[in-house]
Amino acid sequence: MGGEQSPRAGAWATLLTAGKYLFFGGTAFALDLTLLSVLISTLGCPAWFSAAVAFAVSTVFAFFTQMRYTFRSNASTRGAMVRYGILLAANMVFTAAVVDRFDSWWDAYVQGKIFSTGITTLWNYFIMKHWVFPRREEGSGRRRRPRP
């Protein structure tokens, strides 16, 4: 029957999507770090400015690659931007709180950053897939529902 997927094919599709999510997220991080380094070390820009520019560029890159290539969302770009911004703000608050707690409790801010990055990476996959970049059925504004 058309449109149905075997459990094995569904599992492979999920693994492929997760792999793309990690690839594009890792590429965004590498872009952020590379641009930060070039702006500071090569162009002599201040660290605060370089960090802001590198973060902004990598965030835009991550948004569009995750929307178009990872999750193949056909939802409204404007709506996805709003949802992505909300998720980004929540991640920033969570990360700041975790890093602060790790630093004050154990003098371990680096471990706090690593821990918070792992947690946000995990939950972001599911939030992006189902809320930020949902797939919509062609010709309707409704989300595609999985078939039993």
Fill in the keyword field for this structure:
single chain; 148 residues; mainly alpha; 4 helices; 77% helix; 0% strand; GtrA/DPMS transmembrane domain-containing protein; transmembrane; GtrA_CellWall_Glycosyl; membrane; GtrA_DPMS_TM
How would you describe this structure to a colleague?
The structure is a single chain. With 148 residues, this protein is an all-alpha fold. The protein folds into two domains: 8-70; 76-136. Helix content is 77%, strand content 0%. It has four helices and no strands. It has helices at residues 7-42, 47-70, 77-106, 109-132. Helix 1 runs antiparallel to helix 2 and helix 3 packs antiparallel against helix 4 (109-132). The two termini are 12 Å apart. The mean pLDDT is 91. It comes from Peptidiphaga gingivicola. Residues 20-133 form the GtrA/DPMS transmembrane domain.
**First and last CA, distance:** 12 Å
State Rg.
Answer: 18 Å
- How much helix, percentage-wise, in residues? over 70%
Pairing-aware structural class of the strands and helices? mainly alpha
Report strand %: under 5%
Number of DSSP E strands: 0
- Can you count the helices? 4
The biggest beta sheet reads: none
Number of domains: 2
Low-confidence stretches: none
Q: What characteristic shape results from the CA principal axes?
A: globular
> What's the order of the H and E elements?
HHHH
What do the pLDDT scores average to?
Answer: 91
